[in-house]
Amino acid sequence: MKIFTGVGSRDIPGPRGRLLSFIACYLVRLGWGFRSGGADGSDSEFERGAVRATGTSQSEQIEIYLPWPGFNGRIDVPENRILGKKSNQEVARQIAKKIHPAGGNLKESHLNLHGRNGYQVLGENLDLPSDFIVYYAEPDGKGSVKGGTRTAVELARCLGIPELNLWYDHVARLLFDLIKANHPDPLWECYKQLKLGEFREWLHG
């Protein structure tokens, strides 16, 4: 089963949030697995679509990881997907420390928030990378993105995982059009077309 990570900013416009739900629903119906972090905004919009596709939040296709029990009012997540209950939680925290610019100085709660990004990208045993990361996050002007999503994005980049940032209108529009056309592998096709476009700009620039 192919797996995508769906994460992003808590602050997201309604139309773009509905697009995240639409994308997740389509991918999960295609058989993709889904990972996220249970936060408001982008995480919740992605999850809403995944649940719509499966009919239940307890589907084996859906993996939601929390930084601590009861995060964001969630009581439906099993203990093996809560950082504070996991035997490998120190590994997840170490990943966050390595990636976050202030990793060595993060408070425990913030370290747990960023630590759960490791599970969102690598799964509950931290050994099965997602095939794709799709997210909505504002660029930071330095080649990455703002907010906690940065940890997941930079980890994905370390692992060579392809990414799509739906903050950009042209990316969102292309992916939407591919799904509306019932493309059998819209993430890869979107990624390929974007990369070819970048190459042509470089070649003729």
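the 2nd protein, sequnce then structure:
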Amino acid sequence: MQMDNIKVKNLQNVSLEDHYKTGQHSLADDFYRPVLANTVKYDRLSGYFRTSVSSLMREEYIDLAKQGGKIRIICSHKLDNADITEIQTGYELKEKISELFHHSIEQTLEEPWGEEAVGIFAALIAHNCLEVKISVLREGDGFVHDKIGLFYDELGNTVSYIGSINETTAGWNINHESFSVFQSWDNGNKWIHAHASQFENTWENI
């Protein structure tokens, strides 16, 4: 691939609003997909997480992985069996990557067998693009229900959001949700720093 063909990831290329709401916006098409397409790192704290969300952002996830991007997800202990299987499969493959992945990341993620065998998320884990941590609290303490996300581009720009939305297909495409958005180049740094600190503190203490 020639360097001239690589598009610079710049979050300022995305026209963003301060607030998004189901019924007024397509949350995935108007926000998630264009922002993710201009991201090199995505941190997500979510009460619920379903690997099926990759079906909405397949091209964006693959592009992020090809360019060496990173995704970190923190979710609660309430996962279904399919999600647990994909995550476990991904980490098993990560341990055996020298044996199981002899092709390039493009082949692994784009060929039908790769998607069918391990799922997009499992492939991303295996290729060191995705890390998932599951927060399990003691009985009676409740569970993680915060919902924030942070996107970073290669130019030092950051976008964060906070609201009701979980990292699920239903959250991004079906449920009635809303969230507020903050941009580092538009007086959003106070909130961005707070969101980043919350994510990092949670990540380090799991």
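The CA atoms of residues 57 and 191 lie 26 Å apart. The two ends are 39 Å apart (CA to CA).
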